[in-house]
Amino acid sequence: MHSTILGRFATSRSRALHCPHALSHKRLISFSDLQTQQQPQRAVSPSTTITPPQPSSPDRQRPLIALGIETSCDDTCAAIVTSDRRILSEVLRTQHHLHEPMGGIVPKLAHHAHMRNLPEVVREAINKANLGERGIQEIDLVAVTRGPGLAHCLGVGLNAAKTLAAALNRPLVGVHHMEAHALTARLTTRDPKFKYDTQQGESSDLELLGPDPYPSFPFLTLLVSGGHTLLLITHSVDRYTTLASTVDDSIGEAFDKTARELDIPWLPGRAGGPGASLEEFAKGSKCPDRYLDQLPIPMSLRMNKREMKFSFAGLKSAVTRIVNQEKKSSPVAMMDEEKRKDLAAGFQHCAITHLCQKVEQALADCHKNGLQISSLVISGGVGRNATLRSKMEQICQKYDYAASSPVKESKVKKGFSGEATAVPLNSPSLSVDTMKPRQTIQVICPPPKLCTDNAVMIAWTGLERYQLGLVDPYDIDIVPKWPLDMLGTGIVPE
Questions:
Q1: Which of 111, 165, 64 is nearest to 475 (CA)?
Q2: What's the CA gap between 270 and 38, in Å, rounded?
Q3: Has this prediction a pTM greater than 0.70?
Q4: Are 291 and 346 in contact (CB under 8 A)?
Q5: What would the pLDDT profile of 294-319 be if each residue is shown by its tens digit?
Q6: Rounded CA gap, 229 and 203, in Å?
């Protein structure tokens, strides 16, 4: 890993709307010196003057309520979420029936479907939330995906959110789609240190999950979706450092195109699509190693093994070559189902192994350079993959971190927060006494239905940003291409 992978960090943009909080972070320049540096803050548009949201009754304090809207790709979504981590409603309209015949997402079809679906989706979300006599007036802020995504699709959601926020005289929060994926786990995960009331039975989406969002900062985030493959350090809301990204295709795109190459029908529903269909199809393989000698594990050669990059184009091309060879050798110019299942299993093995190698390298580098992390969060559509989750748990069991009691300074380097950094469990430098207060790094995955694009994560991220004073004016525009580590710098790509 290069010594400068943490990148620069500028003073965090703070657009407070009647909020007492204002964040100012500093991003690390390198692992080697752990030095910080501030850069001049770029001017941003002034915030719109808005009357602060009021509870329905002046003598009753209640949690904040956010309406979230998501239209970045092919699903039209709206949800209402509270700051005490309750999902009051969620509505989603998929477009699989439009895009499956075309073999992939068609932006123009998605755009027109959003225009047809969004008004009814928002209305249904508001009605299902049972907001009481004041109805929509109970909503305290409107959060919407601003980017990245398909330009015309983003515009449908952003224009609707601006109109709603202006009509209600409420704050508008433009959300980075990938930050929302990264923070979803803080809505859905129980804090292991919190004692829950077991007498009430199993929890539901409507119950309070803990006193504070969990996992605690900082943590590693692996975002794997149709448009992105990113490995990040999530320092806090609005503050991220990219450790690795793809140099060509995303893993989700590779899954989708491989499923199309193998003629695998899409699974229906919100947890469906080509990627999920490939995983299910591969389960039927009787000889999963049939094609492994013909399928490369990306970035695993000596010359590039240490590079923190993802690449799936070569693996995808190898699948195409095998399919063409099998068709040529077949008297009916088709690949039989058994071999297709074996090839799907081999592709999945190589793709997941590639992800695991880079995550394990990041964990080792974090330890080597004194970087404290608490957990690994996996999100995005491919984050639903059960094999991926299982392999990542095996990797993280090799590492632990100091959760409470400090360890001796002579034994372990200190991280930014003063706590001990993540250390391999088999490290010879740790004594038995040092190991006692440590906890294994946890793999955290949001529920499968919240790994794909959804408005719940947008509403929750809007709440987290709003409570830190990160609010946007009504004249913001979409940002189809938007690196996540640009958040907090005050700079938005044109």
A1: 165
A2: 43
A3: yes
A4: yes
A5: 999 999 888 888 899 999 999 999 99
A6: 32
